[in-house]
């Protein structure tokens, strides 16, 4: 009997890791889908700590995919600051804009993150916020911006940062909010995608540093060590392939299908959960 129960828990955590990994890079809200799947299957991985843990796996996948961009930005920031290399200024300013865009979500997360995660974690809220995500994606589905990384401004960074801060609310897609706002200010699809996911790195890294050490040391985590590891590995692999797939979607401008999806799931959640 214990074996069957342990197997069920492993399958449940595998499902949560898969849901996190698949939904994190695409604009349909990973936090909202984790809440939905917990409700559907009665999975007891409650609270933000587990979400932050599997989100760390997604972060590692994003780091792997964007490693060349990250290395280039770090190198050119160093060259501009310490070697006065003017050709590196564009990448240095891109890093500055990423830092600026991180501030709003950092402030909101520190001040209201726990409150929003607990109070607004009901399925009805997720249903409504998925509909909001659908409307936002539909609004920008046909936009074709022209602005590249070197064309960005401080104002652009603030707008994208504020949009990502809104995504602290469960059901509002973080990647969706960042990409929608980036495209609204005129960024090209590839630039918007790169900015959104490079912005994801410091935000996710910050929450990971704050939360994961205490989570891993907790008795609850130790008691479910194998299921948590399975969720982590699954989230990493799923995020990697989902982000690669989403890059191709962005290149071909098929965002409207995510809008359709969010409408259908949002309505189902509102009326049936």
From TrEMBL:
Cellular component annotations (GO), alphabetically ordered: plasma membrane
Keyword field contains Hydrolase: yes
Broad enzyme group: hydrolase
Pfam families in the record: BacA
Compartments it resides in: Cell membrane
Enzyme Commission number, as recorded: 3.6.1.27
GO terms, molecular function: undecaprenyl-diphosphatase activity
Keywords assigned: Antibiotic resistance, Cell membrane, Cell shape, Cell wall biogenesis/degradation, Hydrolase, Membrane, Peptidoglycan synthesis, Transmembrane, Transmembrane helix
Recorded topology in the membrane: Multi-pass membrane protein
Transmembrane regions listed in the UniProt entry: 7-28, 48-66, 92-113, 119-140, 192-210, 222-243, 255-272
InterPro entries on file: UppP
Keyword Cell membrane: yes
Reaction(s) the record says it catalyses: di-trans,octa-cis-undecaprenyl diphosphate + H2O = di-trans,octa-cis-undecaprenyl phosphate + phosphate + H(+)
Major location category of this protein: membrane
GO term, biological process aspect, one: regulation of cell shape
Note: Bacitracin is thought to be involved in the inhibition of peptidoglycan synthesis by sequestering undecaprenyl diphosphate, thereby reducing the pool of lipid carrier available.
UniProt similarity note: Belongs to the UppP family.
Protein function: Catalyzes the dephosphorylation of undecaprenyl diphosphate (UPP). Confers resistance to bacitracin.
Protein name: Undecaprenyl-diphosphatase
Annotated gene: uppP2
């Amino acid at each position: 009997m214990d074996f069957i129960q342990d197997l069920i828990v492993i399958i449940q955590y595998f499902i949560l890791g898969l849901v996190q990994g698949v939904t994190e890079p695409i604009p349909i809200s990973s936090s909202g889908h984790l809440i939905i799947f917990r409700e559907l299957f009665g999975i007891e991985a409650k609270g933000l700590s587990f979400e932050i843990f599997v989100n760390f796996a997604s972060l590692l996948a994003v780091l792997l995919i964007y490693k060349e961009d990250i290395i280039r930005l770090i190198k050119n920031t160093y060259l501009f600051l310490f070697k006065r290399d003017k050709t590196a200024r564009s990448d240095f300013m891109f890093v500055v804009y990423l830092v600026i865009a991180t501030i709003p979500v950092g402030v909101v997360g520190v001040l209201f993150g726990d409150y929003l995660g607990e109070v607004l974690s009901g399925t009805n809220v997720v249903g409504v916020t998925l509909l909001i995500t659908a409307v936002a994606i539909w609004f920008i589905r046909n936009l074709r911006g022209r602005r590249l990384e070197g064309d960005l401004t401080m104002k652009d960074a603030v707008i994208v940062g504020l949009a990502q801060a809104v995504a602290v609310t469960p059901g509002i897609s973080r990647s969706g909010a960042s990409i929608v706002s980036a495209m609204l200010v005129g960024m090209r699809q590839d630039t918007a995608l790169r900015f959104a996911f490079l912005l994801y790195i410091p935000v996710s890294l910050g929450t990971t540093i704050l939360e994961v050490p205490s989570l891993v040391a907790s008795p609850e985590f130790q008691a479910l060590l194998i299921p948590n590891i399975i969720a982590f590995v699954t989230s990493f692999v799923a995020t990697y392939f989902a982000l690669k797939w989403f890059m191709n979607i962005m290149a071909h401008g098929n965002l409207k299908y995510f809008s359709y999806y969010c409408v259908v799931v949002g309505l189902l959640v509102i009326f049936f959960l």
